[in-house]
From TrEMBL:
Residues 33-230 form the Aminotransferase-like plant mobile domain. This is Aminotransferase-like plant mobile domain-containing protein.
């Protein structure tokens, strides 16, 4: 039984990630990340997440509630985020020449001091791609789209406890935006979340990470006793369900 409120780690960058500029929206749409880009920041409820973790059973990957047994599924990931959930597995290589990888896909070779293994300091990435140049060509827009998606991936979907670095393992998967959509990002996100929930079920665990914002939205949507009262319950246009929640 979880005796304390568990610390829910979240990448600090998610606080400062604005809605994408219209110039890169076509690339986000093509890659399958447009839905996640439409979701806005809200505060994580550590007490709610801790209560869910208390009821998580790692051997079954389900929550045991008073009235039923349930879990977050791929369908939930699809509805909440609109991330692709079919096709190829998301895999990466940790043994690449990372400065060369950045030069190829981000158009710039970062200095050695902004690397730590396959991690690139988020502050450097934000500083380099904070603004899109006027009259940028499509190659430049593609680079900015990749940088934006990397911030989405590491800041929201696969965030870890470092809170300062981008895992460059994902960058080569964004070489071609059409190909990027062929990866099952939703499946990978759910698997990572399951792993963190299983870790959190250990009473000795003090903090967890992962896509906890998706878990919280799932709880608001699926558990009546914790549901929020929203002034406008319907998502706008073709936006994902999760886009109706914001601070």
């Amino acid at each position: 039984m979880q005796e304390e409120v568990i610390t829910c780690r979240r990448h600090a960058d998610v606080l400062h990630l604005d809605a994408p500029l219209q110039l890169i929206v076509p690339h986000l749409t093509e890659s399958g990340f447009i839905g996640v880009s439409q979701m806005r920041f809200f505060v994580l409820d550590w007490h709610l997440i801790s209560a869910l973790i208390e009821r998580w059973r790692p051997e079954m990957h389900t929550f045991i509630l008073l009235i039923r047994e349930c879990t977050i599924t791929l369908e939930d990931i699809d509805i909440i985020t609109r991330l692709p959930i079919d096709d190829h597995a998301v895999t990466g290589n940790y043994r690449l020449d990372w400065p060369s990888v950045c030069e190829e896909y981000l158009g710039i070779r970062p200095p050695p001091h902004v690397f730590k293994g396959c991690g690139l300091y988020m502050s450097w990435l934000i500083g380099q791609f904070e603004a899109i140049p006027e009259e940028a060509d499509d190659a430049t827009l593609l680079i900015h789209a990749r940088a934006y998606i990397m911030r989405l991936i590491v800041g929201s979907l696969f965030n870890d406890k470092s809170n300062t670095r981008v895992n460059l393992m994902f960058l080569p998967l964004l070489a071609d935006m059409r190909q990027a959509r062929q990866y099952s990002w939703g499946s990978a996100c759910l698997a990572y979340l399951y792993r963190e929930l299983c870790r959190g079920a250990n009473p000795e665990t003090k903090e967890i990470s992962g896509a906890l914002f998706i878990l919280q939205i799932w709880a608001w949507e699926r558990i009546e006793t914790v549901a929020l009262s929203l002034p406008d319950p319907a998502p706008h246009d073709d936006a994902p369900l999760g886009s109706r929640y914001a601070c």
